[in-house]
Amino acid sequence: MRTTKAVLVMWVFVLSGLTAVAQQPSTEWQSRLTQILPLLGHRNWIMIVDSAYPLQSSSGVETIETNTDQMEVIRQVLSTINGSIHVRPIVYMDAELPYVPEKDAPGVSAYRQGIKGVFAGQKITSLPHEQIIAKVDEVGKTFHIVVLKTTMTVPYTSVFLQLNCKYWSDEAEAQMRKAMSGGVPK
Asked: What are phi and psi of 185, to 5 degrees?
């Protein structure tokens, strides 16, 4: 009887340990992001998406399941990008998000508030979801796209980060193009 109790207690500890491991967020996605970011440059994209975002079949799209809260993934991705020497994000979000009612999507109001805090001072371009997807689909034919799936279960919450060159501003590019149109190099 004692042996049976000891075995039963041991199994309870083993199974509770397995449950705890299964519920812990994976860090594999963080390792992969750290590994791939130096290879990414302007025109590449990193997308942080909800759990229902579809698996894309384009060869240039890499999908990674994070098993992590979306706001946490957004914060960590932004921190990693901000710590890089070569890229900065251009942020796109779904234009539908401000119109999703709390009664149909519990948690959307808190998410909208959270996003305001995360992207405080950063320009966010809002486009209809289908336009962003079409843009990403076209880019994926030529450039690599990393999709980070999260545990988010609220619609139209995906964050699309188009990477741009950190050490060359949009203004510098515009000035160079203007000078080029004059035909005289500086």
From this structure: -70, 150
